[in-house]
């Protein structure tokens, strides 16, 4: 598979990089199919041939996460940034597991809070409906009493 990635060039303690396309299994510092641009990390200057990058992407080549993020920052391609992977050490794996555990706990707490608020809202709605029904019943009773009193007055007048 072809990959667009960085190849280090430049002086000692003053690196600059080339954006190259080469076979993924090959050494990035050796022979490359094509040089697509350069990147100077000291002044964050990126020079690329965007037409050729888009051509190779359309042909199905991949990109390293660093190159992907550089191209997105400079608006040469669109998409989401990728997280650069770290070497899996015991320490890193433990940190990742701990972070995942915290995320799960946080999500569970949020779900519980949402459920409680929903239940509270439903209870309020039920109370409101019950009070409205009571008001309707009392108004019906009052109307019936008024009719009776009017009827009794009418009968007394006759």
The biggest sheet, with number of strands, parallel, antiparallel or mixed sense and barrel status, is: 5 strands, mixed
Please give the order of strands in the largest beta sheet: 4-3-2-1-5
Residues in helix, %: 40-55%
CATH topology type of the domain at 2-73: S16 Ribosomal Protein, Chain: A
**Per the principal axes of the C-alpha atoms, what is the gross shape?**
elongated
| CATH class category of the domain at 2-73 | Alpha Beta
The count of DSSP E runs of length 2 or more, i.e. the number of strands, is 5
Q: Strand-residue fraction?
A: 15-25%
Q: In terms of per-residue confidence, which ranges show pLDDT below 50 for 5 or more consecutive residues?
A: none
Roughly how many Å apart are the termini?
107 Å
Number of helices: 3
Tell me the radius of gyration. Answer: 36 Å
Explain this structure to me?
By secondary structure, this protein is α+β, with helices and mostly antiparallel strands. The chain has a domain of 72 residues: Ribosomal protein S16 (S16 Ribosomal Protein, Chain: A, 2-Layer Sandwich), CATH 3.30.1320.10. It contains 3 helices and 5 strands. The chain has a 5-stranded mixed beta sheet with strand order 4-3-2-1-5. The longest helix is centred in the last third of the chain and has 68 residues. The mean pLDDT is 86.
